[in-house]
Design brief:
There is one protein chain. The protein has 10 helices and 15 strands. It is an alpha/beta fold and 291 residues long. The protein has a single domain, classed as Alpha-Beta Complex (Spore Coat Polysaccharide Biosynthesis Protein SpsA, Chain A). The strands form 4 sheets. The chain has an 8-stranded mixed beta sheet with strand order 3-2-1-4-9-6-10-8, with helices on both faces. Strands 5-11-7 form a 3-stranded mixed beta sheet. It is globular, with a radius of gyration of 18 Å. It starts with a strand and ends with a strand. The relative contact order is 0.16.
């Protein structure tokens, strides 16, 4: 397969319709000129339901996307690794299956930000979080609103790592930091990945100021309780607790139990000095000084 400018990958697990909705929004909203530079691929991470596997594959066929099938559940970082390596590309975008893109320039903004700023490692989109049962805003977990479609936040926001539901990076950088940490299985994978860009490459990570994407909060883990645990040396343990401890041990965080990434995030930001960045706005390319 010839190298693309951007590879967009979406994993899914044991659900009907979510991957289809995400792919449909990408195909309907993204301008054709940008789609011609894009490779699209979905992945089913070992769904126990054959109908869910068939649904995921059918959605990819319907939307002219590649498809990867895991025979057993391999976890989020393994899925992301397989998606990120599906084709040669300049930029890789990873989305949750419960993301809906709603602005024609959603992809162009990430492509421009990474192209214009060599110092940037990973960037993510602001999210409009909505409840899938009601379609209402999830006030407890909202960082953007529909008003941000044409009223961007002032500048990109420095962060340890963008939220794992929607983020982008250069494929060459992905290989330079050795990809995602497969052994985490679930939780902290995007955080470990983001911090390695700074630790190994000296690159910074940002949340884009515009445009937002919709995150429907599909609650994959809440509706598939088997994903909450894994077996280690014959003993069933909680995935989140296991990943948290592994992350804390790797990065030397003092707090092994509660939010070890917060300590690392503060350490990361304390070393930063403001730099001039360029990014895409509704009026064209903007520049400014930001952390």
């Amino acid at each position: 397969m010839a190298q693309a400018e951007v590879l967009v990958g979406i994993p899914t697990y044991n659900t009907n319709g979510r991957l289809e909705a995400c792919l449909k929004s990408i195909r309907n909203i993204t301008p054709q000129a940008i789609q011609e530079k894009m490779v699209l691929v979905g992945l089913d991470d070992g769904s126990p339901s054959q109908s869910c596997r068939d649904d995921a594959e059918g959605a990819c066929i319907d939307h002219n996307a590649g498809f990867i099938q895991h025979e057993t559940n391999m976890g989020i970082p393994k899925s992301w690794n397989d998606l990120a390596r599906f084709a040669e590309a300049d930029i890789v975008v990873l989305l949750n299956d419960d993301i809906e893109v709603i602005h024609p320039q959603w992809l162009e903004t990430a492509m421009a930000f990474l192209t214009l700023n060599p110092i940037v490692g990973v960037c993510g989109w602001p999210t409009i979080n909505k409840r899938p049962d009601t379609g209402e805003y999830d006030a407890a977990n909202n960082e953007a609103s529909e008003a941000n479609l044409e009223q961007p936040l002032p500048t990109p926001g420095a962060c340890g790592a963008p939220v794992g539901c929607s983020f982008a990076f250069r494929q060459a950088d992905y290989y330079a930091v050795d990809g995602f940490w497969d052994e985490l299985i679930s939780f902290y994978e995007e955080t470990d990945f983001g911090f390695r860009f700074y630790d190994k490459l000296g690159k910074r990570n940002y949340q884009l100021p515009w445009p937002p994407v919709v995150h429907w909060h599909g609650r994959t883990f809440a509706s598939n309780h088997e994903l909450g645990t894994t077996v280690v040396d014959g003993v069933r343990v909680g995935r989140m607790d296991r990943s948290r401890r592994m992350f804390a041990d790797k990065w030397g965080c003092a707090d092994k139990l509660d939010c070890p990434q917060q300590e690392l995030h503060e350490r990361y930001l304390s070393d930063m000095e403001a730099v001039e960045l360029s990014w895409l706005t509704p009026q064209g390319i903007g520049t400014g000084v930001a952390l």
